[in-house]
């Protein structure tokens, strides 16, 4: 866990379960490369801002405004979750499991 994560407080009640897999049943208007019904993985680091100095220097794990799946956002035990397409949504369609390797150490 990064020092940023330690300083973050999760909201309660919160539904736990990080590093999850599911299918897209709703998709935002500006998402590219993912489609309704796609099977995707959602990592622990569910969102980074892309603008802070950490993100700008390739250290997204220390982002100043992260969202952590299962800690600052509802996660795997929920019936539905919101995922951010800009943060490593691994495409788990048949034959494309290489992108999911980071989800299963
Ligand atoms: Zn950031």
What is the fold's blueprint, element by element?
Blueprint: H1 3-7, E1 20-23, E2 39-42, E3 45-47, H2 53-56, E4 67-68, E5 90-91
Antiparallel strand pairs: 1-2, 2-5, 3-4
Bound molecules: zinc ion.
Outline the structure in words.
- This protein is mainly beta and 105 residues long.
- The chain has one domain: Alpha-Beta Complex (Quinone Oxidoreductase, Chain A, domain 1).
- The chain has helices at residues 3-7, 53-56, and strands at 20-23, 39-42, 45-47, 67-68, 90-91.
- The strands form two sheets. It has a three-stranded antiparallel sheet with strand order 1-2-5, with no helix packed on it. A two-stranded antiparallel sheet has the order 3-4.
- The longest helix has 5 residues, at 3-7.
- The protein is globular and about 35 Å long.
- It starts with a helix and ends in a 14-residue tail after the last strand.
- 17% of the residues are buried.
- Residues 1-7 have low confidence and may be disordered.
- It binds zinc ion (ZN).
- Zinc ion binds next to helix 2.
- Residues 48-49, 51-52, 54-55, 63-65 line the site of zinc ion (ZN).
């Amino acid at each position: 866990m990064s020092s940023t994560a330690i300083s973050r407080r999760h909201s309660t009640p919160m539904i736990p379960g990080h590093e999850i897999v599911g299918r897209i049943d709703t998709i935002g208007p500006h998402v590219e490369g993912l489609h309704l019904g796609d099977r995707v993985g959602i990592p622990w680091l569910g969102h980074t801002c892309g603008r802070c100095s950490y993100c700008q220097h390739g250290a997204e794990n220390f982002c100043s405004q992260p969202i952590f799946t299962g800690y600052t956002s509802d996660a795997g035990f929920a019936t539905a979750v919101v995922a951010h397409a800009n943060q490593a949504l691994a495409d788990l369609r048949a034959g494309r499991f290489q992108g999911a390797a980071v989800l299963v150490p």
